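Progress note, sequence design subtask.
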C-alpha cells in the first residue's frame, strides 16, 4: 500500500512541476517579440534618419542621436531632445 501512495504522490508532484515549467516558458518566450520591439527606434518615439554625418540635422534642431536604439539599414535613431 505504501508503494502505491508514493507513486501517486510522485506523479502529482511531477505534474505540478511540469505545469510550472510550461507557465514559466510561456512567460519567458512570450515576451521575446516585445524585447526586440523595445530596442527599435520607432518603438521609443524616435525617427530613423538616413544622414551619414552622424547627427540628426535633417530632422531639425529639436532632435538628438540615440545611441542604443536600432534602425533598419544602419540608419541613425533620432529622438526629440528631452527624451
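Output:
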Amino acid at each position: 500500500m505504501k508503494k502505491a501512495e508514493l507513486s501517486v504522490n510522485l506523479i502529482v508532484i511531477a505534474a505540478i512541476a511540469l505545469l510550472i515549467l510550461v507557465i514559466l516558458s510561456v512567460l519567458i518566450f512570450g515576451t521575446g517579440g516585445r524585447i526586440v520591439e523595445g530596442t527599435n527606434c520607432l518603438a521609443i518615439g524616435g525617427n530613423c534618419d538616413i544622414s551619414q554625418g552622424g547627427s540628426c540635422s535633417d530632422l531639425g534642431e529639436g532632435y538628438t542621436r540615440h545611441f542604443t536604439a536600432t534602425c533598419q539599414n544602419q540608419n541613425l535613431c533620432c529622438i526629440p531632445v528631452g527624451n
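Strands lie at 47-49, 63-66, 76-80. Work on this subtask will continue into the next period as scheduled.
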